[in-house]
Write a structure and sequence with these properties.
Blueprint (H helix, E strand, L loop, with lengths): L3 E8 L2 E7 L11 H10 L20 H12 L6 E3 L4 E2 L2 E11 L2 E8 L3 E2 L5 E6 L7 H17 L2 E3 L4 E3 L4 H9 L2 H7 L10 E2 L6 E2 L11 H5 L4 E2 L8 E2 L11 E2 L1
Parallel strand pairs: 7-15
Antiparallel strand pairs: 1-2, 3-5, 4-5, 5-6, 6-8, 9-10, 11-12, 13-14
Helix pairs in contact: 2-3
């Protein structure tokens, strides 16, 4: 049993130590310095999972997830599967999931009606994390994340691409962040800006067509799809809303 010393006094030439026993045989509380020492020496966590990994999907389509996981299990490095998706946001696309290596899978959405500077409207890579105890855990998280992206795609009008994790408020704020700068320098002959007003909705955008007109991706997506009978490939495409030339390339 531990004793607690409160102090001492001297009487008749003797040192008398004063003490008391803990009440109800309870162990004495640890000194404050001990708790402080433990707090300062506790190991810091080595991994914090990103917020977006906790995807708010309710009623997950288990059969679909299981099916996609089985498909990914059979993929070899550099192979891909083509998802049966023809259009997203009224744009003809090709959607693939590729196995880059044992630790990385990539979702890619590529437009078919025109080419882009970065080739794809969206490229999202999922990498294996310490929380993935097995390869199957990794594959299920990968499929769950990619399905979330496909169900939550939005158009970033400023950069001209697809996004999934940004809110509409964040995207609207991004489109407005350079407004004052643009208004100040748009008529300065000594400066050439990389942004301009969309010729349809007047939102600032970096997207320019091959014919030189600024058209944001959202307004491009709203254009009707055309097919020219005299084209050899008879491919579907979109025409510039300003000059009616075929849109071959966005930069």
């Amino acid at each position: 049993m531990d004793f607690q010393y409160e102090g001492f006094r001297i009487a008749d030439g003797h040192i008398i130590i004063e003490m008391h026993l803990p009440i109800n045989d309870e162990p004495a509380p640890a000194p404050a310095t001990t708790a402080h020492a433990h707090a300062t020496t506790a190991p810091a966590p080595t991994y914090i999972e990103p917020i977006e990994e906790d995807l708010p999907i309710v009623d997950e389509p288990k059969a679909l997830i299981d099916s996609l996981v089985d498909r990914l299990k059979n993929l070899r490095t550099k192979q891909q599967i083509l998802l049966p998706i023809k259009k997203i946001k009224n744009i003809n696309v090709e959607v693939t999931i590729s196995k880059l290596n044992k630790k990385f899978y990539e979702l890619s959405i590529t437009p078919l009606e025109f080419r882009m500077k970065n080739n794809a409207l969206l490229e999202e890579t999922v990498d294996r994390m310490p929380t993935d105890d097995t390869e199957e855990d990794f594959l299920y998280r990968t499929v769950r994340r990619l399905l979330y992206i496909l169900k939550n795609i939005k158009i970033d009008k400023y950069y001209g691409r697809f996004v999934a994790f940004q809110s509409q408020e964040q995207l609207a704020k991004r489109a407005l962040q350079w407004t004052d700068f643009y208004q100040e320098f748009k008529e300065d002959n000594n400066i050439v800006l990389t942004i301009n007003e969309c010729c349809v909705c007047f939102t600032l955008t970096e997207t320019t067509t091959n014919c030189g007109h600024a058209v944001c991706l959202e307004c491009i997506s709203n254009l009707n799809t055309a097919t020219d009978d005299d084209d050899d490939d008879n491919a579907e495409h979109k025409d510039c809303p300003m000059c009616r030339q075929r849109i071959f390339f966005l930069q």
